[in-house]
Design brief:
about 290 residues, alpha/beta, six-stranded parallel β-sheet, 11 helices, 6 strands, about 40% helix, about 10% strand
């Protein structure tokens, strides 16, 4: 399953990317479920950007403080939170503005095992047209499937990077092979040009790691992903155009600041800026809950 992430960004073009997930629209005002929330559109290729990163939908809001955390100096950054916490959209906002080349990998049913995962990574590297590494150091699908020392191909690629390069792994909790995390760590040990951003719902192999390496692992935890009352107000404005502090506070209290729940709640408001009765409140909360677990 995939996140219904709903946090930051503005709309941009949708050409030039090969979707890795089923196409979805972001313009509908109907309630979205956690499974269908992810936009499958991809941003157009630009020099110094992460190839394959999702387009930031028009309903998303900017979260500069969190983006700044992703702009830090950690070799590996883990973004952790449950479904609907806004992991994907946060990382997408950062990735689309990144100054380094890179690739975005969605972990879906086709790439849950080790060989398939790395085959997609290097296919995306080729498709991206990056100048960060010479093509001769990019292993072919045949190389990866041969069964010969896969780790050697990976570290060889990383050690020959000539410029900063980012690999984003979204839905990393779906990986069935934990050895992929060991592969990523091994690549990070041989270069300071590789940046890894991992979005996951669960504890990963990067947590509490003490293997003698000097790799800096940073984390953006679930509590940091929750909307503030001000951010709730911005989300409501996207749906009903006007908002007052009382309504924003009510929505924040009901949703706990969970990004997807906040946006679903905002879409179900009728524009009156009021939740006038307990019955109306219960009806809206019930519809949000149904959408979240669908």
């Amino acid at each position: 399953s995939h996140d219904g992430d709903g946090d930051s960004g503005e709309s941009s073009g949708a050409e030039g990317r090969t979707p890795q997930k089923a196409a979805g629209r972001t313009t509908s005002t109907a309630p979205r479920t956690a499974r269908t929330e992810r936009s499958a559109r991809r941003a157009p290729r630009q020099s110094g950007s992460v190839y394959g990163a999702p387009v930031e939908p028009v309903w998303a809001i900017r979260r500069p403080d969190l983006v700044a955390l992703l702009d830090g100096h950690s070799g590996i950054t883990v973004v952790r939170g449950g479904s609907g916490f806004g992991k994907t959209m946060l990382v997408a906002q950062w990735a689309n503005a990144s100054h380094s080349d890179g690739v975005w990998i969605d972990v879906d049913a086709d790439v849950v095992d080790r060989t398939a995962f790395w085959a997609r990574v290097f296919a995306m590297v080729v498709d991206s047209g990056t100048d960060a590494v010479d093509a001769r150091w990019v292993p072919s699908a045949e190389d990866l499937a041969s069964g010969n020392d896969l780790r050697r191909y990976l570290t060889r690629f990383a050690s020959h990077l000539e410029a900063d390069f980012t690999i984003v792994v979204d839905d990393a909790h779906e990986l069935s092979a934990t050895i992929v995390e060991d592969d990523l760590m091994a690549m990070s040990r041989v270069t300071d040009r590789l940046r890894l951003v991992v979005a996951t719902r669960s504890v990963s192999g990067f947590d509490g790691r003490d293997d003698g390496s000097l790799i800096d692992v940073g984390e953006i935890a679930a509590r940091r992903l929750l909307f503030t009352p001000r951010e709730c107000a911005l989300v409501i404005v996207r749906s009903v155009l006007t908002v007052d502090a009382k309504l924003a506070s009510e929505v924040h209290e009901i949703t706990g600041g969970m990004p997807l729940a906040t946006r679903l709640f905002a879409e179900l408001l009728d524009g009156s800026q009021r939740l006038t009765t307990a019955r109306e409140m219960d009806a809206v909360v019930g519809r949000v809950a149904d959408a979240l677990v669908a």
